[in-house]
UniProtKB/TrEMBL annotation:
It comes from Marvinbryantia formatexigens DSM 14469. It comes from the Bacteria. This is Uroporphyrinogen decarboxylase (URO-D) domain-containing protein. GO terms for biological process: porphyrin-containing compound biosynthetic process. PANTHER family: METHYLCOBAMIDE:COM METHYLTRANSFERASE MTBA. Residues 83-313 form the Uroporphyrinogen decarboxylase (URO-D) domain. It holds the Pfam family URO-D. GO terms for molecular function: uroporphyrinogen decarboxylase activity.
């Protein structure tokens, strides 16, 4: 099997020749296009990972100032003709050219709420979400409309799918009714782009935030359209086996992103992978981490050890 065939088999919950694996971490936001291409290809080549997740380390061009509720109606976002989009488009095309066609490329996307949080501040976003939800919804729709076009542009540039970081379902942030009104519709607006395209895929990452102790309502996302789903097992106490009961798609993850994969030793990494697969089985799973690997001195040889352990299980 090629890497692409192997990951597709997992997404279809069919047997593969071996269990695939993939891990990632952030890069410097001031990297040039070529530096970003080189960094992704270095990780791919050194670790033998089965997918390439292209990191979203350049921020979206969301413009505006929020000083009152009415300001949400007047924000703007650069489109696919913007310098920011063109930079990411060039990264996708460059990685595709170097990696070839036998591996799936997933472009990371943050949701419209996260884009607004980065642009205006989380405190401002939450304040108006509670005080003026209709105004915030109008602003989020402006962002979602732009990001829907960005998602299409990513796929047209050669990405095989979207790695969607779904946030704002954290415990203590919104009630489920508020979340279903304010957040969910705009997540679905982005996710439907790949869902409705031929041979394109969604990886859903259910992401927590540090100010909410990374705890999120994993089950709120059960009906999101995804081919693979990923969440933090350690932070939510939500096992892969429980997730298999909750979601109708295959699963990515299982490993502590701040544990053995970061600190080693190799023997502990190998044992962690073995324990995951002993418990879950080998069908419908790709080994990965709870989230992006975070911490000092990230070592490709540790990532390779996890990939190899999955492949050799």
């Amino acid at each position: 099997m090629t890497r692409k065939e192997r990951v597709r088999a997992v997404m279809n919950r069919q047997p593969a020749d071996y269990v695939p694996a993939g891990f990632w971490f952030h890069y410097k936001p001031d990297y040039s296009v070529q530096e970003m291409i080189d960094a992704h290809m270095k990780l791919y080549r050194e670790t033998g990972a089965d997918v390439i997740k292209i990191m979203q380390d350049y921020m979206y061009p969301v413009k505006g100032t929020i000083t009152c509720a009415d300001d949400w109606y007047h924000i703007s976002v650069g489109g696919t003709d913007s310098e920011e989009f063109k930079k990411l488009e060039a990264v996708i095309r460059g990685i595709r050219q170097e990696a070839g066609e036998d591996v799936l490329l997933f472009q990371t996307m943050f949701g419209p709420f996260k884009a607004a949080s980065i642009a205006f501040g989380d405190d401002v976003l939450m304040k108006y979400s509670k005080e003026a939800p209709e105004a915030v919804s109008a602003g989020i729709k402006i962002i979602a409309d732009a990001l829907e076009e960005w998602a299409r542009g990513y796929l047209n540039a050669g990405a095989d799918g979207i790695y969607y970081s779904a946030q704002f379902g954290e415990e203590g942030r919104f009630t489920k009714t508020e979340w279903e009104t304010l957040v969910k519709p705009y997540d679905l607006q982005i996710l439907q782009v790949a869902q409705q395209a031929e041979e394109k895929y969604n990886i859903l990452h259910i992401c927590g935030e540090p100010e909410y102790h990374f705890r999120t309502h994993v089950d709120w996302f059960a009906d999101y359209p995804a081919d693979l789903v990923n969440w933090s097992v350690k932070d939510n106490g939500y096992s892969l086996e429980k997730g298999r009961e909750t979601f109708s798609c295959a699963i990515l993850g299982g490993m502590n992103n701040k544990g053995n994969i970061l600190n080693g030793p190799v023997e502990a990494i190998e044992e962690e992978v073995k324990e995951i697969l002993d418990a879950f089985g080998t069908t419908g799973i790709m080994i990965g981490a709870d989230c992006t690997i975070q911490g000092e001195n990230i070592r490709p040889e540790y990532i390779k050890a996890a990939v190899d352990a999955a492949h050799q299980y």
